[in-house]
Amino acid sequence: MDENNILVQNLCKRFDGFALDNVSFCVPKGRIVGFIGENGAGKSTTIHLILNELQKDAGTVEVLGRDHTDPTVKNEIGVVFDACNFHEVFTARDMERVLSGVYSTWDSALFRSCLERFQIPRHKAVRTFSKGMKMKFSIVCALAHHPRLLILDEATAGLDPVVRDEILDLLLDFLQDEDHSVFFSSHITSDIQKIADYVVLIHRGKIIFEEEKDTLLDRYGILRCSRGTVVQPEDCIVRRETGVSVEYLVRDRAAAGKKYPKAVSDAASLEDIMLFYIKGDMSCED
Fold it and tell me: What is the pLDDT of residues 217-256, one digit of tens each?
């Protein structure tokens, strides 16, 4: 049995001035995988390649155990982008009529119950919805045909914390079925930190790491040292300087704290870890 709902291996795509370079990662069944990186790192390009909306230059992509070009795959995927792509004159009732004809598994009862849960009116035009309501409506439409895989690209960007929390709860509900998976691209690392099981960091078109979130949060740390402290390169991942000190991202903050007792060893958030990799010195040398 295939244990991954997405399997990407050595995926490449070249544009003028940017290249996706041998990208590999997986999205296991029953898990939420957060996909993080700065704007322009390659997150959206990777998603469009997975969805076969761009033609890859090299590599393989499997979705739900099949090649991503298999036309049967799309019926089992729900996709939500950072903007509502429904025509603004349509109502929720109009979209129900359209999408029930597109998806053989469309569930009108589920669709209407979700509209009621999120207080989305059936008879008002999409143009009257707030941004948060539009995003919740997009997710409801993505879920109403019972997908096994949900892919979100910056779906919580620009939303207030209350709406974002409602959306995250909806994703956790979706994961109650252990056959389901969520691939969630976002630059809001606090959202990823709250719900993801695994985290994939992409930077300048390359995968930097693919790691369990709990490992990142429980073991990684920031070692803050005075400029006179010498930290061995093998003890750190990334180095960066501040105005008064030198900081190191370390894989084992407890061990680093014991080895360098004069330094301060702090926990690292996902945002800390991402910023170290993006802005720091990977050589770790003074």
Answer: 999 999 998 877 788 888 889 998 877 789 999 999 999 9
In whole angstroms, how far apart are CA 181 and each of 26, 27, 40, 210? Answer: 11, 7, 25, 16
Range 1-7 average pLDDT: 84
Q: How far is CA 164 from CA 85, 157, 271, in A?
A: 19, 9, 17
Question: What are the structural domain ranges in the chain?
Answer: 4-215, 220-279
CA distance 222 to 20: 29
Which ranges constitute the DSSP H helices of 148-280? 161-174, 189-195, 213-219, 253-259, 270-279
| Nearest to 249, CA basis, from 220, 207, 210, 225 | 220
CB contact at 8 A, 203 and 279: no
CATH architecture of the domain covering 4-215:
3-Layer(aba) Sandwich (3.40)
